[in-house]
Automatic annotation (TrEMBL):
PANTHER family: ALDO/KETO REDUCTASE. It comes from Actinidia rufa. InterPro entries: AKR, Aldo/ket_reductase_CS, NAD(P)_OxRdtase_dom_sf, NADP_OxRdtase_dom. This is NAD(P)-linked oxidoreductase superfamily protein. Pfam families: Aldo_ket_red. Residues 5-167 form the NADP-dependent oxidoreductase domain. It comes from the Eukaryota. GO terms for molecular function: oxidoreductase activity. The lineage of its organism: Eukaryota, Viridiplantae, Streptophyta, Embryophyta, Tracheophyta.
Length: 199
């Protein structure tokens, strides 16, 4: 993973999406250090790095320790899928307050959310002192999230697409996006790959 990330930085990738659950934080940190060492980038400031507070840490007093773990790249203990008995209601307000403290103390540059619907965002915005900088959601040409994108635009929330190619080749994805005839026709007409026209 470290080698792939290093090569990606060399090729010009600037946003790396990670999470404690993905166990990608340590190789990412090492690759960034090596990229600076090799002169592919001059400073960490040139990159956008996302990590994620995992559901099991979404409790007011576990937010800061979880972030500190991420920053020290200590391997976290996370189980996926989550056991049914571990699914409990989340106190969004108090968890967000703890995330705001992370931002106010300078431990993170920005705070955001993932897989939030308009309704969840509305609930969050009703009490948040710092609005989420970003909402990372699944989005691709066949699932454009129009309503959510409009809502986010109105509220100054940046939308990040995950699985923009339909996650083909992963355990849960499908080939409908990469196998879409319309996209294939557009790609052919433009002499680009399907992935290029999607982006
Ligand atoms: N926030 C969340 O809840 C959440 C959930 C899931 C994922 N994510 C994020 O989404 C990102 C990854 O998305 P993803 O891997 O699920 O989906 P994706 O980017 O839509 O699809 C990845 C698959 O597309 C194929 N592919 C990649 N580049 C290609 C290219 N240039 N041309 C042709 N095929 C290409 C590869 O398939 P082959 O291996 O078969 O070549 C690869 O496995 C990560 O950053 C992850 O953290 C976030």
């Amino acid at each position: 993973m470290r080698e792939s990330i290093l090569r990606a930085i060399q090729l010009g990738y600037r946003h790396f999406d990670s999470a404690a659950l993905y166990q990608s934080e340590q190789p990412l940190g090492e690759a960034i250090a090596e990229a600076i060492d090799k002169g592919f980038i001059t400073s960490r400031d040139q990159l956008f790095i996302t990590s994620k507070l995992w559901c099991s840490d979404a409790h007011h007093d576990r937010v800061l320790p979880a972030l500190q773990n991420s920053l020290h790249t200590a391997p976290g203990k996370y189980e996926f899928p989550v056991k049914k008995e571990d699914v409990v209601p989340m106190d969004l307000k108090s968890v967000w307050e703890a995330m705001e403290e992370c931002k106010n103390s300078g431990l993170t540059k920005s705070i955001g959310v993932s897989n939030f619907s308009c309704q969840k965002l509305q609930r969050l915005l009703a009490t948040a002192k710092i609005p989420p900088a970003v909402n990372q959601v699944e989005m691709n040409p066949l699932w454009q999230q129009k309503k959510l994108r409009e809502f986010c635009e109105r509220n100054g929330i940046h939308v990040t697409a995950y699985s923009p190619l339909g996650a083909k080749g992963t355990i849960w994805g499908c080939s409908q996006v990469m196998g879409c005839q319309v996209l294939n026709d557009i790609a052919k007409a433009r002499q680009k790959t399907i992935a290029q026209v999607i982006f």
